[in-house]
Structures are given as structure tokens and as C-alpha cells.
Amino acid sequence: IVFCSNRKGHFDLYEKISTGAANEKLIWESAYDKFPTDWSPDGKFILFQSSDPKSRFGVWLLPMTGERKAEPLLQNEHSVSYARFSPDMKWIAYQSDESETNQIYVTPFRGPGTKRQVSSSGGESPSWHRDGNKIFFLNGGQMMVAEVNGSKSAFETGKVSLYFDPSRVGGADILAISRDGQSILLRPIEQTFEPLTVVVNWNAELK
Q1: Beta strands 2-5 and 12-15: pairing type?
Q2: 3-state SS assignment for residue 132
Q3: 36-41 average pLDDT score
Q4: The pTM is what?
């Protein structure tokens, strides 16, 4: 697994064997906070978001082979974050506020083509279906799903619909969704209840 820790005063990237059999290892350190968002399906790249004096949040690419030197991938005057690889690694979905509100976009990963906007009424934190034909994202606390087609040279977007409404379960924050879309990790919103009054020996009042 890859994770970030601020044990040196700023958030750096570490990796650790998932079984816990060995200590974690520092894999990328810099003076600016950074947060991992995805590991490529082939294990060769890590996407992380970071900020520096030249930009707001931007997306960086860290190769996990060779010199392991991070390079900016998506960086401009807008906030770009939560980047995720498509299952076939042809595309990257991400969140950006370039239209004055957060929306979901898809851009080619080191290939030809132009970016496409997936959401229209707001979107955050995208996740790919394992088949690559759907993108899940959050909008106003709800889980939305967009039908997409990345098999062609130009990325195609389709219908966007509600996938899951947390109010069904009394309200919750959506933390993650499984690659097959069948399981959603939720954090229940703390609820308050009116106190209960317990009356004992009530049958004495009937006499």
C-alpha cells in the first residue's frame, strides 16, 4: 500500500507491504504536502496530489521503477485533484474547479486526444468501474454514475444518473466504492435522539 505521513513536518509518501511483514519505506519526499490518490493497475505508477508556489493542487506522477522521480502531470492555475487511472490505463479521471465549481473530467494518460467533461452539475472524487465503462463520483453527498466509453481514440460520455443516496440509510458520508460497484464504504452521520423515559411499577396506577 502507499500512504502519506507528516512525521517529518510535511506529508510525504511511503509504501508498506500489505501483510505488515516489513517496515514502511519512504518513496517520495519534498517540502510540500502530498497525498496519494491511485496506484496504476500495472503497479508502475502512483498518482498523487500536491501543491507548490506555482499552482494550487495539482496531479503528479511517480514512477515506481528506475529513478523514481516525480513529475507534474496535471497542473495549472486551477485546483486539480483526486486523479484515478482507468482499468486499461488509457485515461485518467480527475476533479477540477476550472469551471468555478468542481466537475469530473477525463484526459488521456500519455496519449493523443483531448479532455472530456463527465459531470455537468458538479462532481468530486471519481472512481472507475473495473470494466472501464462507468465512472462513479460524488455530487452533494450522493453517489452518481456516468456511462462512458474509453475504447475509442476519443473518449465518449453518456447518461449520468443517481447510483446511491445515503439518506436511504439515515444519512452517511460516502468514503469509497468497490471496483464492481456492488459495495459502498460509508461513515454514518452522527444522529441525536430524544431521551427515553422509563416508568416503573406503572401497574400500581391502575389500582
Answers
A1: antiparallel
A2: coil
A3: 96
A4: 0.84
Contacts 24+ apart (CB under 8 A), 163-167: 163/136, 166/141, 166/142
Confidence of residue 170 (pLDDT cuts 50, 70, 90): confident
Number of Cα atoms under 13 Å in the Cβ half of residue 190? 0
* 3-state SS class at 98: coil
Backbone conformation region of residue 180, classed left if phi is above 0, alpha if psi is from -120 to 50, else beta: alpha
Rounded distance between C-alpha atoms, residue 63 and residue 80, angstroms: 20
Q: Amino acid identity of 31?
A: A
Q: pLDDT digits over 10-34, tens only?
A: 999 999 999 988 889 999 998 889 9
Q: What is the mean pLDDT of residues 141-151?
A: 94
For the chain, the C-alpha Rg in angstroms (whole number) is 22
Q: Amino acid identity of 108?
A: P
> Residue 171, CB half-sphere, CA atoms under 13 Å: how many?
4
